[in-house]
Amino acid sequence: MVVNADGGRGKGRLILRHFAELSGLAYAEADGPEACRALLRGAAAGDAVYLDAPSFRREGEGDAWCRTMGLDDRTAVAAHLVLSPHYAPAQLTHFLRTYQMEQLASCIWTKLDEACNYGSLVTMAHASALPVSVLTFSPELTQGMAPASGKAVWKLIFKHQLPGEYPDRADAGV
């Protein structure tokens, strides 16, 4: 299930709903803590629930939001920081401080097809000590995502090759 937990963005809600439909996932909206907790209680054991969180402005807001929404006492909760290589170093540092929370598990890099360099992937991996989990590289909602394997990340950084631009076989060479 994909849950929009950010009632402040109308356009984002439509995109998220469309993504859920394309993915064959149920879509729901949680307009506050009680609605979020009810959705989480109603999810079957083993079901994945993807929450789209609102934007945060200050350090600590992510942890506070997780507590308010009832996520801090749940097991198997993982937050993923979505970043773009277009962001300036100061902006990346700000995002890392603002979105730092106990549940933060990885970085997802988006808009890679629009970037001309990828050094920020290395910088953020070092600064955050977080792995890269997903690479997105297409304006399309389908077939524009790839798991961030070591091969995919290094080909992106050193050869500027997006996933799908080379054979993804172990014997294809690096």
Overall description:
By secondary structure, the protein is of the alpha/beta class. The protein has a domain at 79-174: P-loop containing nucleotide triphosphate hydrolases (Rossmann fold, 3-Layer(aba) Sandwich). It has 6 helices and 7 strands. The protein has helices at residues 10-23, 33-42, 61-69, 89-98, 119-128, 150-159, and strands at residues 2-4, 27-29, 50-52, 79-83, 104-109, 132-136, 145-147. The strands form 2 sheets. Strands 4-5-6-7 form a 4-stranded mixed sheet, with helices on one face. Helix 4 (89-98) runs parallel beside helix 5 (119-128). Residues 170-174 have low confidence and may be disordered.
With strands numbered from the N-terminus, the spatial order across the biggest sheet is: 4-5-6-7
Number of helices: 6
Total beta strands: 7
Distance between the termini: 37 Å
**Average pLDDT, all residues:** 84
Helical amount: 25-40%
Measured by DSSP, the beta-strand proportion falls in: 15-25%
CATH homologous group name of the domain at 79-174: P-loop containing nucleotide triphosphate hydrolases
Described by the principal axes of the CA atoms, the overall outline is globular
Strand and helix order? EHEHEHEHEHEEH
CATH-level-2 architecture of the domain at 79-174: 3-Layer(aba) Sandwich
Low-confidence stretches: 170-174
Content-based structural category: alpha/beta
- Quaternary state of this entry equals single chain
Q: What Rg, in angstroms, do the CA atoms define?
A: 17 Å
- Give the biggest sheet: 4 strands, mixed
Kindly report the CATH topology of the domain at 79-174: Rossmann fold
Per CATH, the class of the domain at 79-174 reads Alpha Beta
